[in-house]
Amino acid sequence: MTTDMGSPAVRLAEIRRVRPEDAARMRALRLEMLADAPLAFLETLADAAARPHNEYAARVAYTSAGSSNAQFIADPGGRLVGHAGGTTAPNEPGVTVIYAVYVTPTWRGSGLLGELIDGVAAWSRACGRPELLLEVVVGNDRAYRAYQRLGFQDTGVRVPHPTIPALTELHMRRPA
């Protein structure tokens, strides 16, 4: 649970794996993510908004169980306020790739980011993958510093952004 002592009331959010019944709230969070940080994710807001609800529901159901792909959410009750996903690395059996990390702006700085990453890390360890890997767009210094504070280290690896040729991403790793 997260507490934010910076506001007059204490706010709490449960960090947990998504459940099938979260599909509509996950869709709303996904649209917020894409509107707030369009370069950070691999689809456009228009594409996500056009996707039918049953596709969101299928994705949430798939990531709600199993060891190959998982989504963790921050749920204060009502609207979701954070997300972090994890999936197997195709060529590295001991690595979980973290993806689609997002914290709603009003919850940034509350410790929620670390709790979401911890959720993915615990799942990764339980699945026998002792290492985490994530990619950050070069120049996204806020995200880079946040991940450094959580123990991630820049590996020196740079790769082209998968959808925007003008951008480059860097790899960061840490133990799960």
TrEMBL record:
Major enzyme class: transferase
Domain called N-acetyltransferase: residue spans: 13-176
Alphabetical keyword list: Acyltransferase, Transferase
Organism this protein belongs to: Micromonospora parva
GO terms assigned for molecular function: acyltransferase activity
Keyword Phosphoprotein: no
UniProt-listed PANTHER family: AMINOALKYLPHOSPHONATE N-ACETYLTRANSFERASE-RELATED-RELATED
The EC number(s) this enzyme carries: 2.3.-.-
Name by which UniProt lists this protein: GNAT family N-acetyltransferase
Domain of life assignment: Bacteria
UniProt-listed CDD domains: NAT_SF
